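Readers of this paper often ask what the protein records in our data store actually look like. An entry from our holdings is shown next, in its original layout:
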Amino acid sequence: MTYIGQQPATTFDSGIQDRFTGLTTNTVTLTHEISAEEDILVVWNNIVQDKNTYSVGGAGNKTLTLGGALVSADVVTVYYTNKVMQSVNPTANSVGITELNVSDGSNGQALTTNGSGTLSFADVGLSGWSSNSGNLLSSDASKGIYLGVNSATSTNLLHDYEEGTWTPIYNADQGYNTSFTYSTQAGNYTKIGKLVFASFRITATAGVLNGGGGGARIDGLPFDVHDTGEFSSWGGGSAHFFNNMGGNYQAIFFMARKDFDGVYVNGNTSNSDDITYTITNTHIQHNTTLSGQIIYMTDA
């Protein structure tokens, strides 16, 4: 079949309507609210009713009073003439804050609901935290993350992590002075909570530890050793490489002390584990090299 103008649609949208039957009163309750009688068309047993023969009232004008009493066989159909009769998809980018009836928010906020149908823009996410290059960033450096628990347990709070470098130096206790030049002074550390993992390599090219009998040390740790409690030592480590030590040592190990930011250098001159010596300043020479790791506790 040909058409003049636009071809009519092959389908149509049915209007919104209510259908009542089996009633014996002169009132029915509408499904939708209306403003006045003009918003509906009433058909009683296939006869369109004059709007002057019925009235509406009650909450939302949902109570329809007919011009006579119904019998159970009667059929009343109510058509809503002011209701949207089809769904229309809005075009792209056509809905904004005006259409949503909300006030504009700030940068980074999201549209939220109060659970009762009211929309508004609000901050989302954890309070005091933001994203920086995809990483979580706290506005308070003292805050951390509870790990392994579902409640705020202080012993499970990780509040510090740090990586960096440090500069090891040769030193001696009892007030002995040092006079060294170095070809290598390299150190790296990782701090997790109060636990510090420090590695280093140090080589002297000239100089001596002045005085005699003082215990040799390596100072310059990135954090002070823990200085409370009954123990004088809160960490230690060992050398994986050493040479030009002033003694026939089988192994070199370190003991962290709470009274300074360094470690004592100890040595073992025998295959027996229980024969150890404190290395003195005379054993650290101008070409001594030490390389190793230290694990210790700090206060912060």
